[in-house]
Design goal:
The complex is a heterodimer of chains A (350) and B (303). Chain A has helices at residues 3-34, 39-51, 54-79, 87-104, 108-133, 137-159, 189-207, 209-219, 221-226, 231-255, 273-283, 288-303, 305-309, 317-330, 334-346, and strands at 161-162, 165-169. Chain A has 350 residues and is mainly α. Chain B has one domain (10-222). The chains are: A mainly alpha (350), B mainly alpha (303). Chains A and B meet through α5, α6, α11 and α14 of A and α4, α9 and α11 of B.
């Protein structure tokens, strides 16, 4: 394959993702307009709030950190032929593990390892149900997300509650927090960890034997089996890897985001990252390197909401735009659909 | 525990059963025709919202149900168009629709009613119960209607030629196509039917059972309905029984949370996990017997 061809291979999915984003932004603008808000004002403040100024841009990268990691969970699953949407619940367990263990051993490494271990463990029920009972992972991971929510809710309220602050759990001790990269912003070392994890997953999936086995199982499990690959083993590995990155996402949320360094009431500050990660993975085309950029885009959408809200638009508008982007990504051959009328306009014969 | 409480728990279970069963029965039809959709959560959310708006405009809870059905049809058409006609993936659009649902309802409550997070549906826009006891436990007309719908759909699916055709496009679309059945049209129709039922279920949440529109009004019921569909073995009659069991646990956790003499003794969060835990156990245990339609979730492209 020539260099140009390989560029072309990347260009097409990239263009399709950009197109999906534009469609999301356009329909979002339409909805805002119809609801009586100024879409232009909303988008301008959103972009300003996400990219203009050091602390705003730092917030964008900070918000992208957990999304990158949960997107990896979905992407590793998708590349293995699994619809693993269990990152959400795993994030809760990662966060609570980091909060709990750092109370005893106040060291960042302890928090991270605890989160990744519990994350991997929480991925096992879905993996085993899939492999041994044939339970579809979409069903099992959805149920496990809810179970995780209520268990971690109970742990936060009844075991790890903060006697000095009824609105949060005990905070991660200062010596166990991830250092900030840019002082006086919300950008911590967690971002670097997430980027490194993406690169590590990329190398693992494309340049190691295990990664090849995982992708082969996802591409064609029968052929993989015929080639001597055990698809059950691949499925379990895929879930465990995904659990590790989602667990890490939970850890960076409580260890790397000032000022609270704790789980807040109703788990508000750790909720939703797993679901949003699915969108990030889809826009990043389930490729670890694509995910880095998609995560920064979604991070910007989330970071810019505060500024957008000041124009009167409810912050949930961003979720609608994200949803529309995902629906657009789901349209196969999106580019062809758009290209055709243009070709007809140009009078090109084909 | 006295008999009054038993009645109260049972009535609660019947109320909780309605949205799950309606959505499950729809999902059974859709999957029997070969189309998977995990966007029911989003459909429930948005139709609860638009259903309430309809009900308030027309001062009728029943019009609210119609509004919900229309909302469901619209969302189903998007899903059907992508999966059936464009041969796209069956799971991804649902993830998007769920996100639009979560965002759309929270946005919509603010944009339409100007309140944050919650809107109380006025009495005149709600469906009046068939019967009510002195404690306010009531029986909605939607309970018998839901059971009737399930029975009719079962009869239709398994006892009529049209039902056979629907099942054939989900089981073996190539053979169906060879016999002159328009696979795409049947699949699209099944998706629309499922989404409309789910839309009615969503409107029931806001204009009947809960009487309010909240940011999290669906509370995972769209997903429980999917689990119940698997539990039922893709059979509408079994979906009623499963729906009652799920509804019972859904209601029980709420009952324990709010009952002063039980609260504190049992961590209510544990009870809240019960419906999901039961779902998992049931699905894990029954799956050996339950078999999805052969072409479930696979796009059909004519050679």
């Amino acid at each position: 394959m020539s260099f140009l061809e390989s560029i072309k291979d990347y260009l097409r999915p990239f263009t399709e993702s950009v197109l999906a984003i534009l469609i999301g932004a356009f329909i979002g603008a339409l909805i805002m307009h119809l609801s009586g808000y100024s879409a232009t004002n909303a988008y301008v403040s959103l972009i300003k709030g996400a990219f203009f100024g050091l602390s705003n841009f730092a917030e964008t990268l900070s918000k992208s950190t957990p999304l990158m990691l949960t997107a990896l969970t979905f992407a590793v699953g998708a590349r293995t032929g699994l619809f693993n949407i269990g990152a959400e619940g795993t994030v809760y367990f990662g966060a609570i593990a980091a909060v709990a263990l750092t109370q005893f051993l106040p060291n960042p490494l302890v928090g991270i390892l605890a989160a990744m271990t519990l994350g991997a463990a929480w991925a096992l029920p879905a993996a085993l149900l899939k492999v041994y009972r044939g339970v579809h992972e979409v069903i099992s991971t959805i149920m496990l997300n809810w179970i995780a929510f209520w268990i971690v809710n109970w742990l936060s309220l009844s075991i790890l509650y903060n006697p000095k602050d009824p609105n949060s759990t005990l905070p991660v001790p200062p010596s166990a927090r991830l250092p900030l990269i840019v002082p006086n912003t919300s950008l911590s070392l967690g971002f670097v960890l997430a980027v490194l994890t993406s690169v590590a997953i990329f190398i693992l999936m494309w340049y190691t034997r295990t990664g090849f086995e995982l992708r082969a199982s996802g591409y064609n499990s029968l052929a993989a089996k015929y080639g001597g690959i055990n698809p059950k083993r691949s499925a379990i590995w895929s879930f465990v890897l995904g659990g590790i990155t989602a667990g890490l996402a939970g850890a960076v949320l409580v260890m790397g985001r000032p000022p609270g360094y704790a789980i807040t009431q109703g788990m508000a500050n750790i909720y939703g990252y797993g679901f949003d990660g699915i969108g990030v993975a889809l826009v990043g085309r389930n490729h670890p390197l694509g995910i880095i950029f998609a995560a920064i885009l979604f991070g910007a959408l989330n970071a810019g909401t505060t500024a957008m809200q000041q124009t009167g638009v409810p912050l949930e508008m961003v979720k609608i735009v994200e949803g529309i982007i995902i629906v657009a990504v789901a349209v196969p051959g999106l580019l062809n659909l758009v290209e055709k009328p243009f070709r007809a306009l140009g009078g090109e014969q084909k | 525990m006295n008999s009054l409480m038993v009645i109260s728990l049972l009535l609660g279970a019947f109320s909780a059963m309605v949205p799950i069963v309606l959505t499950s029965v729809g999902a059974v039809v859709s999957e029997r025709a070969g189309v998977v959709n995990i966007g029911y959560e989003g459909i429930l959310m948005l139709s609860a919202f638009f259903g309430a708006i309809f009900a308030e405009i027309f001062s009728s809870g029943w019009m609210g149900l119609l509004g919900g059905a229309i909302t469901g049809l619209f969302l189903g058409a998007i899903h059907g168009f992508i999966t059936v006609y464009l041969k796209g993936d069956h799971v991804i659009p649902g993830i998007g629709i769920n996100l639009i649902g979560y965002g759309g309802v929270a946005f919509g409550i603010m944009a339409y009613w100007g309140t944050a997070g919650q809107h109380q549906v006025p009495e005149y826009a709600q469906i009046q119960p068939l019967w009510m006891d002195t404690f306010g436990d009531s029986l909605s007309p939607l309970v018998p209607i839901t059971i009737a719908i399930a029975v009719v759909v079962w009869w239709f699916l398994f006892k009529t030629p049209l039902g056979l055709r629907i099942r054939s496009v989900g089981e073996n679309p190539e053979a169906a196509d060879a016999l002159g059945i328009n696979v795409e049209r049947y699949r699209f129709g099944a998706v629309l039917f499922a989404s409309a039922l789910s839309g009615i279920a969503g409107a029931y949440l806001s204009v009947d059972w809960l009487g309010t529109v909240t940011k999290q009004i669906a509370a995972g019921r769209g997903f429980i309905a999917l689990a119940n569909m698997v539990f039922s073995g893709w059979n509408p009659l079994m979906a009623v029984i499963g729906g009652f069991i799920f509804g019972f646990f859904d209601n029980l956790s709420f009952y324990i949370q709010t009952n002063p003499w039980l609260a504190g003794k049992v961590p209510w969060q544990f009870v809240a996990t019960l419906p999901y835990l039961v779902t998992l156990i049931v699905v894990a245990g029954i799956i050996g017997k339950a078999r999805p339609p052969k072409w479930d979730g696979r796009p059909y492209k004519r050679e």
